[in-house]
Amino acid sequence: MTTTELAWFKSSYSGSSGDDCVEVAVTEQAIHVRDSKDLARPPFAVGREGWASFVRFVDNA
């Protein structure tokens, strides 16, 4: 599966104004992350455990 075939959605942690958005796509193996305003830059992927740690960190910030 290529990153263009993934089902991208706006992260709930992105602002509501729509100008700075992080988009994520979930697969069995990883969470893919990209900047919605810079689609020329390739997205990156993190493992599910790494993503869970990141979300816990953001929730506690």
Structure description:
The protein is 21% helix and 28% strand. The protein is of the alpha+beta class and 61 residues long. The protein has one domain (3-60). The chain has a 4-stranded antiparallel β-sheet with strand order 1-2-3-4. 5% of the residues are buried.
Strand order of the largest sheet: 1-2-3-4
Query: Structural class of the secondary elements?
Result: alpha+beta
Helix content: 10-25%
Radius of gyration: 12 Å
Strand content: 25-35%
Sketch the topology as an H/E string, one letter per element. Answer: EEEEH
Give me the count of strands: 4
Distance separating the two termini: 34 Å
Q: Number of folding domains?
A: 1
On the 0-100 scale, what is the average pLDDT?
84
The largest β sheet comes out as: 4 strands, antiparallel
* Low-pLDDT residue intervals, each spanning 5 or more residues: none
The total count of helices amounts to 1
The gross shape turns out to be flat
Main attributes of the structure:
61 residues; four-stranded antiparallel β-sheet; 1 helix; 4 strands; flat
Summarize the structure.
With 61 residues, this protein is an alpha+beta fold.
